[in-house]
Structures are given as structure tokens and as C-alpha cells.
């Protein structure tokens, strides 16, 4: 089973990239973040015409999540349990034995901004969500743009990023506490080496070509599913195309 994640930074702007990538790489499931479109304008018909199934929840101009799949998703649920405003940040669906949770975690804006505290609390609420709905024996995958570089190896200049909302120690601790539910970082299981990134800031000239990036997108598996992990990889080619998203595709392969 091949499961991938991609922050599209507007699904309508990146639809051709997505459909081409799916045709070439044949994922069973592709999780999309930052679709940036309200549900009434989501390009559902184009995706279905290309032979895929899709579930989605969005809002105008920002946020938005979707799951595109080879087979119809089952038991689709959007949002956390305690606040309907989160529906455009988290969507889950079941595919056979595997449940996929796709999240777009708040970025946080600035350390002294209220949205940073919201980000920290969001991780805590997400941990409660996992505790409530799942067990370690479940075949569970948590993926998406999590807006945290977990370790120094996950950002090209960690010494300069101590006060960045995606590397600040409080953000890393909040992420770690949620991940301690039992998740295994599947990419790091297969690739412990440095220089592996999924996000390259538009504002940094030739960031992708120069390797000036962050790893803030993840494929995290429950212990039961992690045992079946065969490989994980980052596809840099879409990030090097004209008018790309600032993220690129991250893929995990499982023998399920």
C-alpha cells in the first residue's frame, strides 16, 4: 500500500501536478493539505474523471484538507471532537485495515502571537483524539503538514531557527508529546541521513536547488503499521518545476 502526502498550497493551482504525479507514481492514497478552496468550488469532478475517489473539507482562501484514493474511502470523519472550526484541518478515512488521518497543523505565525499557543494546544487536543479513538494495535497512519521540524537534522540551519514557530522548543515538545502516543517516523526509519527536506521557502532564492529546506511533512505509523513499512521517500522533482508548491511529495510504502 502506497500512501503519500502533499501540501498543495492551492489544489486548483496544483491540480495538473497532482494528477500527473498520481498517474506516474500510482499511490493508493494521497493526502492533500492547504487546498484553499471552499467545498462548493473544490475540483471534485476533475479528480473523479481521472479515475480517483476523493473526500475533502475546506474553506475559502486558506486551510483545507483532502484524501484522494484508488478505492472509495470509508468512515470519513472531519474535525476534532471538541470544535467544528477544525474541520478544514483534519480528515480521516479507512481503507481496508488501515485508517489514515490527514492533518494540516496550525503554523503559529509568531512566538508571541495567540496562534502559536493555539498550535501548541492543537497538538494536545490531537493527542487526546488519538487516545480516544485508537489503540496501538490498530493499523493507523498519521500524515500531513505538521509545521514542526522535530530535530536539528530536520532543518538546514537549526542554530538560526530557535525562535521560529516551526522549530521553537515548545513546538517540538508539543509535537513530541503527541507523537509519543506510539507513532513511528517512517521516513526516518529508512533515511537517517541529513539533507532530507519536504518544504523550501519561496522567499529563499533557489532554496530547493540549494538544499535550504525543512522537513515538516510526515508519514507517521502506529507500531502495528510501522512493522509493515517497506520504504519511504521524498520526490523532489515536483518542487523543481515552474510555479511549484513550496512543499513536495512524501511517500510511504507498506506491505499491507
What secondary-structure arrangement, pairings included, does this model have?
Layout: E1 2-7, H1 15-25, E2 29-33, H2 44-49, E3 53-57, E4 65-69, E5 74-78, E6 90-95, E7 98-104, H3 114-133, E8 139-145, H4 169-179, E9 184-185, H5 186-190, H6 207-210, E10 217-221, H7 223-226, E11 229-235, E12 249-254
Parallel strand pairs: 1-2, 7-8
Antiparallel strand pairs: 1-12, 2-4, 3-4, 5-6, 6-7, 8-10, 9-10, 11-12
Distance, first to last CA: 6 Å
Main sheet: strands, sense, barrel: 6 strands, mixed
Estimated helix fraction: 10-25%
Beta-strand percentage range:
25-35%
CA-based gyration radius: 17 Å
CATH fold-type name: Deoxyribonuclease I, Chain A
Q: Can you tell me the CATH architecture?
A: 4-Layer Sandwich
Give the strand order, joined by hyphens, for the main sheet.
3-4-2-1-12-11
Helices and strands, in N-to-C order? EHEHEEEEEHEHEHHEHEE
Helical segment count: 7
Please report the first level of CATH classification, the CATH class.
Answer: Alpha Beta
Number of discrete domains: 1
Average pLDDT works out at 97
Low-confidence sequence ranges: none
Classification by helices and strands: alpha+beta
> What's the count of strands?
12
- The coarse silhouette is globular
How is this structure best described in words?
The chain has 256 residues and is an alpha+beta fold. The chain has one domain: Deoxyribonuclease I, Chain A (4-Layer Sandwich). The protein is built from seven helices and twelve strands. The chain has helices at residues 15-25, 44-49, 114-133, 169-179, 186-190, 207-210, 223-226; strands at 2-7, 29-33, 53-57, 65-69, 74-78, 90-95, 98-104, 139-145, 184-185, 217-221, 229-235, 249-254. The protein has a six-stranded mixed β-sheet. A six-stranded mixed β-sheet has the order 5-6-7-8-10-9. Helix 3 runs parallel beside helix 4. The N and C termini lie close together (6 Å). The model has no long low-confidence stretch (mean pLDDT 97).
Amino acid at each position: 500500500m502506497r500512501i503519500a502526502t502533499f501540501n498543495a498550497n492551492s489544489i486548483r493551482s496544483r491540480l495538473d501536478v497532482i494528477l500527473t504525479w498520481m498517474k506516474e507514481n500510482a499511490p493508493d492514497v494521497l493526502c492533500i493539505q492547504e487546498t484553499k478552496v471552499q467545498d462548493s468550488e473544490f475540483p471534485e469532478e476533475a479528480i473523479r474523471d481521472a479515475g480517483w475517489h476523493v473526500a475533502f473539507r475546506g474553506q475559502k482562501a486558506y486551510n483545507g484538507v483532502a484524501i484522494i484514493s484508488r478505492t472509495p474511502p470509508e468512515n470519513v470523519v472531519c474535525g476534532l471532537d471538541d470544535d467544528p472550526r477544525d474541520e478544514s484541518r483534519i480528515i480521516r478515512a479507512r481503507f481496508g485495515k488501515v485508517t489514515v488521518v490527514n492533518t494540516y497543523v496550525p503554523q503559529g505565525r509568531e512566538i508571541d502571537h495567540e496562534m502559536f499557543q493555539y498550535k501548541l494546544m492543537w497538538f494536545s487536543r490531537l493527542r487526546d483524539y488519538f487516545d480516544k479513538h485508537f489503540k496501538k494495535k490498530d493499523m493507523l497512519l498519521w500524515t500531513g503538514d505538521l509545521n514542526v521540524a522535530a530535530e536539528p537534522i530536520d532543518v538546514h540551519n537549526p542554530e538560526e531557527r530557535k525562535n521560529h514557530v516551526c522549530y521553537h522548543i515548545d513546538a517540538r515538545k508539543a509535537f513530541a508529546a503527541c507523537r509519543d502516543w506510539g507513532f513511528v517516523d517512517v521516513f526516518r526509519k529508512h533515511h537517517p541521513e541529513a539533507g532530507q527536506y519536504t518544504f523550501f521557502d519561496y522567499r529563499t532564492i533557489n532554496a530547493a536547488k540549494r538544499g535550504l529546506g525543512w522537513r515538516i511533512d510526515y508519514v507517521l505509523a502506529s507500531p502495528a503499521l510501522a512493522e509493515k513499512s517497506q520504504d519511504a521517500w521524498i520526490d523532489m522533482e515536483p518542487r523543481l518545476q515552474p510555479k511549484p508548491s513550496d512543499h513536495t511529495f512524501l511517500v510511504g510504502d507498506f506491505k499491507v
